[in-house]
Amino acid sequence: MSGKQGDGSSNRARIRRGPATPRKRTARVTRNGGRGVPQRSTHTSRALAAIPAPIQAGIRRGSNYLLAAVMIGLVIAGIVAMKLPQMIGVELGEAAGRAGLAVKRVEVRGLSKMDRARVYDVALEQQSRAMPLVDLEAIRQRLLHFGWISDARVSRRLPDTLVVDVVERKPAAIWQYRQRLSLIDQSGTVIAPVKLDAMPENLPLVIGPAANRQVPALGALMEAAPSLKPMLAGASWIGDRRWDIRFQSGETLALPEGDAESRAALIDFVQRDQRVRLLGQGFVRFDMRVPGRIVVRSSREPGQQIAEPADTTKTI
Fold it and tell me: Which CATH number fits domain 98-168: 2.40.160.20, 3.10.20.310, 3.40.50.720, 3.40.50.1820?
């Protein structure tokens, strides 16, 4: 018994089993009869599955609309990049010009000092004379480069006229710097160069670096002494800090630094002149740089220039 059992177990042990073949997965058959690929469930798919069908349809429609809008935007960007609207606009403007809407006349208003021909040249210097294509702002900006013109407005008057309204600068002084003379307005803006033999006699002469920018301050200073304004011949801006005032009678008044200090000194000078009569008496220079004191330099004879060091000075 034991031997037979041993033989049997031995026989069973000798039986070789073939290689284990992997179990074939049963393909999932879809509803239409084809074989479907097994898919794993994800959070996204589960979330989409939880959305009601009407909302899913709305999302799909919104996606389609967004895609269509992007495509339309790309088409429009391509058209703009090719400058098709500009080309169409230019062609329409030229057509209007050929139909009679073209610049034939320029009307200039408000100009009295500057040469009008220069304004005409700027107004007519256009790539196209067709009225719709005339760049009014470009004309205005070019006109503002002229010293005489403070402001300008350019408009169309159909069918064929450009109207240019100009605000002209008013000369306030003559600025002398580096042996050059320039006409300037009240703000110190340079208007135009001036020849020595053509200097306006009714304008004061300001001398020195950046003296043109000090003209507003000089005007405010002279407002403190209105009786001296008709007698002002000019002024020198000294050391970028103070004024030397020159009168038509030949005297020079040295004022101290600072707006308040120079104003007080000028008022003091006016009061002294009213009491003693300083101007037109042969004095050469009044020095009021020291507050409360005036140093007067005089020549031996009224109106005679004095030479260094033979000057005589006195304090009053």
Answer: 3.10.20.310
